[in-house]
Every structure is written in C-alpha cells, then in structure tokens.
Amino acid sequence: MSTRVAIVEDEPELAALVADYARAAGYEPALFDDGAQALAAFQDAQPDLVVLDLMLPGLDGLSVCRALRAFSQVPVIMVTARVEEIDRLLGLEAGADDYLCKPFSPRELMARIKAILRRSGHAAAVLAVDSAAHRITVHGKPLDLTPSEYGILAALARRPGQVFSRAQLLDLAREGNASLDVTDRAIDSHIKNVRRKLEAVLPGVEAIHSIYGLGYRFDL
Predict the structure, then answer these.
(1) Which long-range contacts (CB under 8 A, 24 or more apart) does 91-95 make?
(2) What would be the CATH architecture of the domain defined by 3-120?
(3) Cβ 78 vs Cβ 8: under 8 Å
(4) CATH, range 127-218
(5) pLDDT digits (tens, 9 = 90+) for 29-57
C-alpha cells in the first residue's frame, strides 16, 4: 500500500509542485485547498502524514491541527510564510511535528517527510535488489546500471545503515563477480554516477551518504 501524504495548501502552483515531488518520492499525494474540507476527509480516512499550510481560508492551519489532534496522532508538518518565533511555537504547541517556512525547497520537505515517516514506522521499502536477475528496481522500475554500479549499490542496499570503507565496499561489490572491473580509487566515481541515477527517480531523496573519514552508508 502506498504511503498517503495529504497536502493542505491553498496556493495551487505550490500544492501541485509539492504533489509532484511527493509522487516522485513514492508517496500517494492528496490535495486540499480548504482546512474544513481536509479535516472532514481525515475523519473518514486518515493519511500517513499531513503537510499543512498555516494560512488557509476559513479554518486556518492551527485550528485544523488542534482539531486533528483530538482524534489522530498522524504526523503533521506545518508550513507558513510567517517566520516569527511565536508562530513557530504556536504551531508546535498545536501538535505539529515539524515546521517549515516559505519559501522552502521541495527537496528539503521530502527529506523531512522521509525522516518523520521513518520515525513513525511508515517508511516504504522503495528499492529492491534482485540478485537472480542482477537488477535493482525503484518503485518496481529497473535502474539502468552498469555491472560495477549494480555491484556497489547492491552491496550498500543489502546492509542499510551500515558504514563501509571503500576497500570493504569493493570486496562486497566483487562477491559473486570476481571479474568486476572496479578499483578502490574508482569507487567515488561509481558512487557519483549511482547517486545521479537515483536522483532522477527519487528527487530530493539522499540514499547514499558520505561519512567523512570512513566511507559510505545507504539509508533510504
């Protein structure tokens, strides 16, 4: 089942942009431009996360958040053009889990959504390694990888959260394929290419992290 992200935003262009990024990140977006309408919909079927604008026509974001907290603990990220500290505090006191000021980067919003969903147990397994077919898919679609890139990404993805040195990563990438044409010095270049290909299908999502002085870690 797809992770459902409700976007409550009365600026149509911004709402559509956020929805596009959410869809590309593997989420199922639902758009609302009215607070009361959104709240009624949440009572019927709760989403997995809510991106909630503070300044909405009619029922504002703070009121929606307070009312939502009366029957749900669904994570809420509140967004607003009002940057004063009192507004931020009011949003958090109303039950928001995070707070983002406009204008914001959609990529940053996706990163925050991912982090909150992971903490709340809703993170989706979007990447799969098929060893038999020597293929890696994202949301069911195969990535166009060279044999070296496949070996490196597969090694990382099979052990999420673990940090590997370049030498360790090279050994793992060569498991089952001793003829793999990759050297310790070339790991960085292959990682760069893999990141670029992942970014094309998962915009705003950083899957491979550089750990200074140690190596790389996969975390999606």
Answers:
(1) 91/54, 91/61, 91/62, 91/65, 94/62, 94/65, 94/66, 94/69, 95/65, 95/66, 95/68, 95/69
(2) 3-Layer(aba) Sandwich (3.40)
(3) no
(4) 1.10.10.10
(5) 999 999 999 999 998 888 989 999 998 98
Q: Give the pTM.
A: 0.59
The token duo for 134 is 């020597």
Q: Are 122 and 48 in contact (CB under 8 A)?
A: yes
Residue 177 has which token pair?
A: 């394929």
Domain residue limits, the chain: 3-120, 127-218
H and E: helices and strands count for the chain = 8, 11
Q: How far apart are CA 68 and CA 55, in angstroms?
A: 16
Beta strands in the chain, from DSSP E residues, in sequence order: 3-8, 27-32, 49-53, 76-80, 98-101, 127-130, 135-138, 141-142, 163-164, 208-211, 215-218
Question: For residues 72 and 29, is the Cβ–Cβ distance under 8 A?
Answer: no
